[in-house]
Specification:
By secondary structure, the chain is an all-alpha fold. The protein has 2 domains: 27 residues, Herpes Virus-1 (2-Layer Sandwich), CATH 3.30.40; 54 residues, no CATH class. It contains 4 helices and no strands. The protein is elongated and about 45 Å long. 13% of the residues are buried. Bound molecules: zinc ion. The site of zinc ion has 7 residues, from loops. Zinc ion binds next to loops.
């Protein structure tokens, strides 16, 4: 099957996985952790399973508002995701 973004061919069982991570995939409205209040930001961190996002948010938050509670939630999640791989 062909990736609808980059056109590379993948087998049926990995095409969804690839499309989810395809570098050619158009950026969705990128959610900025700094646009959120601490509470929804933490909630978002907790339900996100994409370590790349978590890392990006961690960088964004530490260079921006640097809220300890948000940083803690992101770091905890990052360790959790790293542990799974
Ligand atoms: Zn692709």
């Amino acid at each position: 099957m062909k990736c609808r973004y980059c056109g590379d061919v993948y087998s049926e069982n990995v095409i969804d996985l690839h499309e989810g991570r395809c570098p050619e995939r158009p950026k969705e409205k990128e959610l900025k952790i700094s646009d959120l209040n601490a509470e929804p930001a933490i909630e978002l961190a907790n339900k996100t399973d994409d370590i790349d996002k978590i890392i990006a948010w961690l960088a964004e938050e530490s260079q921006g508002k640097d809220r300890k509670t948000v940083i803690d939630a992101l770091e905890t999640k990052m360790k959790e995701l790293e542990g799974e791989e």
